[in-house]
Design brief:
Length: 210
């Protein structure tokens, strides 16, 4: 059970509600898998093994690896419900994934160049659009992503910006932990949705918490 504070008092998401959010994530992952398969020219399986709903200040505890060098693709979302959506992965994972997408031959690169960051940005665009479409259908609304922004920094530094955008008006964060499998290779990452007050209200109403 996940608890968070609302103006009505202490509320909670039950496991069945978390499962519903996870299922929405898996629907998005299914659509993203198809698009990613054409991008890397190989079968891609994307799974959402875990879904976490927490308060903004609990993100360090829930995401872990707070000082890890991280690559983030960030989108602001527009529509009836707005907010911030991020795709997060470790720097090493970004190198491995971009090398796979760009079909690098020879030794694995040790740094991300402009072309590699472009590949990660394109992947983020594909996956985020798929996840947002699934989330919008789940909420019964329309949500569109902005052009992506890519950042490389410690996870703690990266999350300061989106958290500051919503911290004054919303305290709810949805984290979809995500696993990408391309042939025999496994890549771990996560997607983080920080909804604005209207999107947060729609989530709470969806589950009868308001």
């Amino acid at each position: 059970m996940v608890e968070f504070q609302t103006e009505e008092g202490e509320q909670s998401f039950q496991e069945i509600e978390i499962d519903a959010l996870r299922e929405a994530g898996n629907i998005g992952a299914s659509h993203a898998s198809t698009a990613m398969s054409s991008l890397v020219r190989a079968p891609v399986m994307i799974d959402v093994p875990d879904c976490i709903v927490c308060k903004t200040e609990q993100m360090p505890e829930k995401l872990g690896a707070w000082e890890q060098q991280t690559v983030a693709t960030l989108f602001q979302t527009y529509g009836r419900g707005t907010g911030v959506f991020l795709m997060l992965m470790s720097y090493d994972t970004a190198i491995r994934l971009s090398s796979r997408m760009l079909e690098h031959m020879g030794p694995m690169p040790t740094e991300l160049d402009e072309e590699s960051l472009g590949a990660i940005s394109e992947m983020g665009n594909i996956c985020t659009s798929a996840y947002l479409n699934a989330m919008a259908q789940f909420l019964g609304t329309t949500v569109l992503p902005s052009p992506p922004m890519v950042a490389i920094d410690m996870l703690s530094a990266i999350l300061q910006y989106p958290a500051s955008l919503v911290a004054q008006v919303s305290d709810l964060v949805v984290v979809l932990k995500t696993s990408f499998q391309i042939e025999n290779e496994i890549y771990q990452g996560c997607f983080v949705f920080l909804p604005d007050p209207e999107s947060q209200t729609m989530l709470l109403e969806k589950f009868g918490a308001l």
